[in-house]
Amino acid sequence: MTHRIELWTWDLDRPGDEALLSPDELARAAAFATGTLRARFIAGRSGLRQRLGAHLGLDPARIAFRYNRFGRPELPGGPSFNLSHCGARAALALCSTAAVGVDIEAIRPIERAVATRFFAPAELRDLEALSGAAWDEAFFRLWTRKEAFLKAVGTGLDTPLASFEVTADDRPRLLRAEGQRAQDWALIHLSPAAGTMGAIAVEARGGGVELRLRD
Description:
31% of the residues lie in helices and 28% in strands. It has helices at residues 23-30, 35-56, 112-118, 121-128, 132-153, and strands at 2-11, 66-67, 73-74, 80-86, 89-95, 100-106, 164-166, 174-177, 186-190, 196-202, 208-214.
C-alpha cells in the first residue's frame, strides 16, 4: 500500500479569514501579546480550515475539531493531519491512510547544551565531530525529525525527546522508540524555504510513501 501525503505551505503574513474561526480559536487569537502573532495565528487556523474544507468538500467554518489529551486537534473519522509553523511560514501535512506529523524550524545557532539536554546519547555522538553551520544543520535534522514523529504519535513534547532515536544524516530514519517498531515509520526531509528545515513522519507500516506538494 502506498500512503499519499499532501503537503501545503503558505505565508502567515498574508491576512487570514477571521470569520472562519470557531469561538475557542478566536479566544486563543485574542490572547496573543502582539498583533503580529495574533494575525499569524488567524492566518494559520483559517488556512488550515480552508485546505481541510477543500480536501473534504466541507464548509471550512463548520469543521469541528476534537482535541486529544495532549492538545492535538483531530477530525473524527480522519484524515490524519498536522500543522506546523515557523515565523511567517506554515506547513500542513495530511494523510488519509496513516498517522502523520510535520515540523518546520528556522535554522539558527543553538547552544550545545540544548542538544545535551534533549537528545539521546547516540544522537549526541553524531554531533560530536561537527561545528559551525554543519552542527546547526545536523541539530535541526534531529530536532525536526523527532518533533514530527512525536506529533504523528500524538503526544508532542509530553514524550521526552531523549527517549527515542532518529538519524542526523541525509537518510532520515527512526532508529528506536519505546512501544513502537522503528521499521513501521517513514521519515521525510523537508526544505520548505530558504533558511528553514523540516520533516514529516508517517506510520507507513512497510508501505510506500508518496509526497505531493500542494499550492
